[in-house]
Structure prediction request, 474 residues.
Amino acid sequence: MRSDADDTDVTARTDAAEAHHRGRQTPEEKFRQMTEEPIRPLILSLATPSILSNLVTSIYNLSDTFFVSSLGTSASGAIGISFVAMTAIQAIGFYFGQGTGNAISRHLGARERDEACVLATTGLACTLTLGLVVAVLGNVFIDPICLLAGSTPTILPYARRFVGIILMGAPFMCSSLMLNMQLRFEGEAFYSMAAIMTGAVLNMALTPFLIYVCGMGIAGSATSTVICEFISFCLLVFQMQRAGITPLGLRWLRRPTREMALKINNGGVPSFVRQIMLGVATTLLNDAARPFGDAAIAGLAIVQRICGFGNYVQIGIGQGFQPLVGYNYGARRFGRIREGYAFAVRAALVAVFSVGVFTCAFAPQLVAFFNDDPEVVRIATLTLRVESFTMSITGMAMITNFLLQTTGRMWRATILGACRLGLVIGPVVTVLPHFMGLLGVQLAQPLTDVITGLVALPMAASILGELGREERAA
Prediction:
């Protein structure tokens, strides 16, 4: 008579044989890598693909801004309005990506692969479904969404067309984000990078073709984004099947349970709130800038895209740190987590400060590259120069947020993530413009960065102390 242990052993040997046939690591080899290899090179090896894919995405966003800005200031302003719709799409993708990904890495660290596979497949099914809901409801209420996001009458026609097309791709855009994060949490960031970079590079080539050659205008940019996001989605599914530790399959599909929802919420709610707050912050800034005209809205949109470079670098470092946290938290190896945190914070601060020096020094040239309207350049230059340096302060807050999130400290991670993107910027952007006019709008985000950094300090001390006590008790 066969025992459960015999079945498990057969399954493990089959998985190992299949993994070596496909040229990828087995779950056991990945476990040893994440829990035994030296921490600094491990984090860098995990972070580098994330940073590269994030930077390529940022370059695409900048090129998209460049091409759309050539259609006029109002069209450029529509890019800023679209951030709100993109934020809703990203909120769903990040919720399920971070929610399932955090739990998957902890299960893999505890050597519970079946549970990880169930989370991967069920998470994809849920993401596709909610993405479809966003696509339908978003287009039904397209005008109220654009107006709420701060659109002026002159921007609205561009925003309506651009956002409407973007929303049609919501199911695949949400799912791409989720699969991308699942691969990263498994420690397979290279395969994630290959899929994301392929879509982004294709997008950079297809966007000008559709805008200028096909004469589609701003609709060409949105259509290109949807097409290339679908291509990335297909590649990510392929990579999950070929290289992922948790392949997708109907045998892993389950009806969501309360226990599963709690696991996803622990990792997903902070990211969901963070993305919603990003939409709130963008809306508040656009509303505050609206009295100063389209140039102010366009200038803020350009600054957001340029500052995306620095943010993507520190996010990439944090994404390289997260799988190490998940695996080692599941394996109860807390000392490696604390050592990894210290290195990730230092790396984020140095990298983003270096980016800030460059963007501050060449602020007028960078802004003028995307929009040479003198008023846009004037407004965006000061905003970019101030934010170039305060942006580096958020590195410690971001790494702390990832640590709290991956170890299941949902509420603290949610509060810290919401600070920069809503809880703090709301009062700041309401008060400063009242007393300082446009200057208050320009200083709102930098001041929020400083306050968020101060809030993160006691939270960092708290979680590191808790990990120390758990290590002593283990």
